[in-house]
Fold:
Amino acid sequence: MVVMAGASSYAGMDEHERKVVIEFMHLLEKSKQLFNGLRDLPQHGHKQWQSYFGRTFDIYTKLWKFQQQHRQVLDAKYGLKRWQIGEIASKIGQLYYHYYLRTSETNYLNEAYSFYAAIRSRQYYSRAAKENRPDLMVKKLRYYARFIVVCLLLKRMKLVRELVLELDKQIVDYTSTYEPDDQLEWSLVLEEIKSFIKADGIVNVVHADSNTVVLSHRLGPLTTPPCEKTPMMNLVLQEIIIIGNCNDQVKFSELTMDMFRMLQTLEREPQDDFHNHIYDSSPAPGRSSFDKYSMHGKMPHENGDGTTMIGRPLRRENPHKYLLYRPTFSQVIMFLSSGFKELPMNGAMLLYLSADGCFPATKHPQDYGYDLGGVQTSCKKEDIVHTKKTMQLKEMHCMYPGDLYAFTRKPFFIIVDSDNSFAFQHIPQYFNQPLVILMSPQELPLKFQDHHHNGSLFTLFLHSPLTAFCYICSVPTVPIHQWERCQSFIDRFVTEASRLFSHSRIDPAYLQFFGDDFLRLLLLRYVFCDVVLHLHRSFKGSMLRPRCQPPMPEGDLLDHPSLTHLVFDLAAHLEVRDHFMLTSQGTD
Structure:
């Protein structure tokens, strides 16, 4: 709790001033209690935590308005400091970010951004160093780290680079002033951020003046694949579990690069109306829209019946998702079970696994559920046994195909990106429910293996097909006009593949998932990935191509001449035709 100078007595205050100070202290203490209680809420499910979040938003709304309305009294009689206002705004930003994580609605990211950006604009933490309090400096560093995460997710890369420079300077000031025990930890945080930014820019799209173009890869009206809807296409993606555990892959804030790319792929572009109430640069009270921000009803709050406004059964823009970084086996099962339980009628669940493989000890498997190994979801160094070419873990840290059998009772869409992905191709349809499994190649050509820490190639194809195409063709920089022309080839490919998909002799499970915008996008990008790698000279051999279960038809879809010609046309436009076979004939 912030202790006011002379808080033990209220001498020198009139009745009104005393009431203002007491009410502010009460709201501040209550807000901290509720905020600290957030960590005890269940991380799964939809309803168990909403009422508590609503009450927390409610108290912070009151606190924020109260300090705005009574700033003069609080400044003079309570000794309210600018960093204390910044701390309240930072907590509100955190609330919005965590609400985004729980709801998957990207507009809450915009709200978090508004508060974080205002803290920087108004320099609420500018005098933190003068307080001679290392704990306050740590709060300032954490604020920067959180703001960077939000900006990364919103693809505000210019601001990200500015914030990284500022964070670097703040870390230097902090460590040189206090020589703290956590000096190495903050240096590692900074290196993680820098490595993450570098890896995310694997292909650089530039303007005519050579400045980088920042592209978003969330689903929008122009990127939603066309589809001839049929009554069979009745499933809607409702629940997503994204799991990341690749030891050598760059990560930041418990987001590996693969997780970062996949979560954006599975979100729609956020609405742009937040620019209408963005802060201005004036630090004077009452001048900016940020000052009036919380009075506009933007904060979720509790209704009289105990429910929250955000808890009303409104149509969600995005499927609900869980982001799990290196989860234990019990956590994976718990979140899968929660997603399974929450599935409504005609709802589908997606499991995305990006993890290192754990390989079988037996050469003669009898049980395809467990004898082929699986993927490691939680890595603990003491449990790893190194052999010449494999990495085996104790059974408890491995997610086996057999562990997923129970969840095939409902429509299940599985993506496995691993060097042991093919272990999942034998999952049976015991319950006659739609089941599709997309599996990454298990191997990479030698020249691409050194870059695996930048993220998986398969996930990159699912996230941004053109970026992946440029990468495997050694095209590091693309002018924006050429990029847009190349994107038109991708769009034509997706449109043609969608038409072929609907008219091919394909397993009905695919068609049931095909009506959902996100799942259709993933399926068509998988087709693009398979066709491109099949034609590329460097990807010879079955282990270098992706697989799917049930198998997609070759002649009707994957080997169709119209798709092959579009890939060749794209390659010719980028002047990389020599990376591909002369024709589609004779390829592996």
User: Anything to note?
Assistant: The longest helix spans residues 480-503.
